[in-house]
Amino acid sequence: MASILRLKDIGKVWHIERTKEQVVALGGISMEVEQGEFLVFVGPSGCGKSTLLQIIAGLEEAGSGTVDISRSADGQKQTGMVFQEFALFPWRTVLENIVFGPEVRSVPRAQREVNAQKLIELVHLRGFEHRYPHELSGGMRQRVALARALANDPAILLFDEPLASLDAQTRKVLQAELVRIWQETKRTFIYVTHGLDEAVLLGDRVVLFTARPGRIKEIVPVRLPRPRSITGRGEVELLEYLSEQIREEVERSLKAEGLT
Ligand SMILES: Nc1ncnc2c1ncn2[C@@H]1O[C@H](COP(=O)(O)OP(=O)(O)OP(=O)(O)O)[C@@H](O)[C@H]1O
Ligand SMILES: [Mg+2]
After folding, report:
1. What is the pTM of this model?
2. 231 vs 223: CA distance, rounded Å
């Protein structure tokens, strides 16, 4: 398999002007991401997962190191982002939200609307095209956010805890939907979550981060057939392993800070 993204020794220090504080968020991240893989990031709160996604997306600069994304022949946008809070435009309908990116890129109207209709089909939002975000449930809003990110046809989709604010039932439905959409679109997904069960259900590989400054503690391949079930034997064993690793990391960082 070809790699689509290569991270080399990515470091990041945040400087907080007001308090003159320096926060070392990332301490040297190197890894390769395969074309079409579903990669999941897990790690203690504050270990730099969101920071790393922002760097991959080009929204923040790395302090050191390089991000190398393979260019597609047509020069399309390389990354698209889906956040935990629904970053939709409240004054635009579902359809208008989805066509926003293509509109900015001056894609002809007919073409962007045909494409948007396909995406509405893909994320199962048929019949809701003309609703405003506040007229939708949380789960539906995340479907719109996903369709909007896909409308830019990015090679890599970045997800920052996209299901975290949804109820358990909706989350379960959308987890299965995400796997289906990933399989249908054959995109590369990089997905941050605190849900270790979610990591086991979704990932081809799970990247475990250390406590801040975030480093890669271990990359765990998930060799379990899909569709997965959280009660399956392999799934339960992996979940226990990941829980133990995170617990160890959180305890280590609390000790280092003298909090235990
Ligand atoms: N814009 C910023 N300015 C200053 N410090 C920041 C900024 N963004 C993040 N940080 C700091 O960098 C560190 C890593 O933050 P980040 O949000 O990347 O962690 P995270 O792993 O996503 O955490 P969580 O799991 O809680 O979302 C934290 O100590 C945070 O306070
Ligand atoms: Mg975060």
Report:
1. 0.95
2. 16
